[in-house]
């Protein structure tokens, strides 16, 4: 059996490793720190900084293929790994998608629809950009943002200097605020041979900029579902992705799809595929990066997922048995020791008679986690 190398240490790597090990692969992971969610289930955990190119080279020499679960692996690390093993998706995909300016530029250049945006290199450039983009607008750091960190909304009358300080005064992208109808995503995969598959349209609801609920098979009017899936496939072809990629979309009130951002890896909104689809997004990543035929993505039943954030650990350990009293609810915990507020600790997937029923069950199960503890 082959050995698969993962750069990164979070829950995405953990679920990838679980899928890979089930299929008989060995999994090595490299990230700073030990005892990580990925490291706990990998065959070998290398504790090293991504900047330590010697360690990355040594890591890559001992595996047959390298993939990643962490978006901010520096280009130097993927370049160095690529000298010893194939890196899938290739480092250039990571390089583009880890910076909002490069990502939005690549999308716009390839003709994919995005919200109006402009690069903002300095505070001095912000007022002009606001003039052209209009308000309300959203200012986002170009790098290192996730779960809405590093972004701020700017309304008419707000002080641009304050907004610039709020995101830390670093290179940014300004985009028009979209008063969207809904948010959705398409998780797709592309194999070494160029074959593609996707998991359909997933509806996403956020709370405080963090994904809260995902529901499979969102019904969309006209040809919009097909359009979303074609955009996801088109993006993978344009970037020559081998692996899994998620496209996050806004659906505007006048029925247009806008690409919000890309993630060149399995995505939180695709976690429901673990239980709900013939092949999960994690098995699909294994299949894609190993050059296997992609798995069928059929959904087995209507399904919904809710995230479990660290907040649920107040005042104490959640009541898992209460949530699992519903025999159509599945629990996933990521093995994180420190349940900080806003931190993704796990998720629940629920099945139902239809998608609304599945979402209701997922939300009810989550509510039951804390209902007794609080009383
Ligand atoms: P993640 O990578 O965790 O999905 P992120 O920090 O990269 O998040 P975005 O996806 O850009 O951030 O934004 C997070 C959420 O904030 C979006 O899903 C959406 O709900 C809201 N948001 C972001 N940009 C806009 C916008 N231009 N107009 C309206 N809402 C927005
Ligand atoms: Mg993001
Ligand atoms: Mg996002």
Automatic annotation (TrEMBL):
Catalytic activity, as annotated: 5-amino-1-(5-phospho-beta-D-ribosyl)imidazole + hydrogencarbonate + ATP = 5-carboxyamino-1-(5-phospho-D-ribosyl)imidazole + ADP + phosphate + 2 H(+)
| Enzyme Commission identifier(s) | 6.3.4.18
Write out the pathway annotation from the protein's UniProt entry: Purine metabolism; IMP biosynthesis via de novo pathway; 5-amino-1-(5-phospho-D-ribosyl)imidazole-4-carboxylate from 5-amino-1-(5-phospho-D-ribosyl)imidazole (N5-CAIR route): step 1/2
Matches recorded under InterPro entries: ATP-grasp, ATP-grasp_carboxylate-amine, ATP_grasp_subdomain_1, PreATP-grasp_dom_sf, PurK, PurK_C, PurT/PurK_preATP-grasp, Rudment_hybrid_motif
**Keywords in alphabetical order:** ATP-binding, Ligase, Nucleotide-binding, Purine biosynthesis
Recorded GO cellular component terms are: cytosol
Return the SUPFAM superfamilies for the record: Glutathione synthetase ATP-binding domain-like, PreATP-grasp domain, Rudiment single hybrid motif
Q: Which GO terms describe its biological process?
A: 'de novo' IMP biosynthetic process
Give binding positions for ATP: 100, 140, 145-151, 175-178, 183, 206, 260-261
Q: Where is the ATP-grasp domain?
A: 104-290
Q: Which Pfam families match?
A: ATP-grasp, PurK_C, RS_preATP-grasp-like
Q: Which GO terms describe its molecular function?
A: 5-(carboxyamino)imidazole ribonucleotide synthase activity; ATP binding; metal ion binding; phosphoribosylaminoimidazole carboxylase activity
What role does this protein play?
A: Catalyzes the ATP-dependent conversion of 5-aminoimidazole ribonucleotide (AIR) and HCO(3)- to N5-carboxyaminoimidazole ribonucleotide (N5-CAIR). Catalyzes the ATP-dependent conversion of 5-aminoimidazole ribonucleotide (AIR) and HCO(3)(-) to N5-carboxyaminoimidazole ribonucleotide (N5-CAIR).
Subunit organization: Homodimer.
Q: In which family does this protein belong, per the annotation?
A: Belongs to the PurK/PurT family.
Name recorded for this polypeptide: N5-carboxyaminoimidazole ribonucleotide synthase
Gene behind this chain? purK
């Amino acid at each position: 059996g082959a050995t698969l190398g993962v750069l990164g240490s979070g829950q995405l790597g953990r679920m990838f490793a679980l899928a890979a090990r089930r299929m008989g692969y060995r999994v090595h992971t490299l990230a700073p720190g030990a005892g990580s969610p990925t490291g706990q289930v990998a065959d070998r955990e290398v504790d090293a900084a991504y900047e330590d190119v010697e360690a990355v080279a040594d890591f890559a020499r001992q595996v047959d293929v390298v993939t990643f679960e962490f978006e901010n692996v520096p280009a130097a690390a993927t370049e160095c790994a690529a000298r010893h093993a194939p890196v899938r998706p290739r480092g250039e995909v990571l390089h583009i998608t880890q910076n909002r300016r490069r990502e939005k530029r690549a999308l716009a250049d390839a003709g994919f629809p995005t919200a109006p945006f402009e690069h903002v290199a300095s505070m001095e450039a912000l007022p002009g950009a606001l003039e052209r983009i209009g308000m309300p607008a959203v200012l986002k750091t170009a790098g290192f943002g996730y779960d809405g960190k590093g972004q701020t909304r700017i309304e008419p009358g707000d002080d641009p200097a304050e907004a610039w300080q709020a995101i830390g005064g670093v290179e940014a992208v300004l985009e028009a605020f979209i008063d969207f109808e809904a948010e959705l995503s398409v998780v797709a995969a592309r194999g070494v041979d160029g074959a593609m598959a996707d998991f359909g349209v997933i509806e996403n609801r956020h709370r405080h900029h963090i994904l809260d609920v995902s529901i499979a098979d969102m019904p969309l009017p006209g040809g919009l579902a097909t359009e979303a899936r074609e955009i996801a496939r088109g993006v993978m072809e344009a970037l020559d992705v081998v692996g899994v990629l998620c496209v996050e979309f806004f659906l505007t009130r006048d029925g247009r799809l806008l690409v919000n951002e890309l993630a060149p890896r399995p995505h939180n909104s695709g976690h429901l595929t673990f239980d709900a689809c013939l092949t999960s997004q994690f098995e699909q990543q294994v299949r894609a990066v190993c050059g296997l035929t992609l798995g069928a993505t059929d959904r087995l039943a209507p399904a919904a997922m809710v995230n479990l954030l660290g907040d649920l650990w107040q005042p104490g350990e959640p009541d898992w048995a209460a949530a699992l009293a519903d025999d159509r609810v599945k629990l996933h915990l990521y093995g994180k020791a420190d349940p900080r507020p806003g931190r993704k600790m796990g998720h629940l997937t629920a099945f139902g008679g239809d998608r609304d029923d599945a979402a209701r069950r997922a939300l009810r199960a989550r509510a039951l986690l804390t209902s007794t503890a609080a009383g």
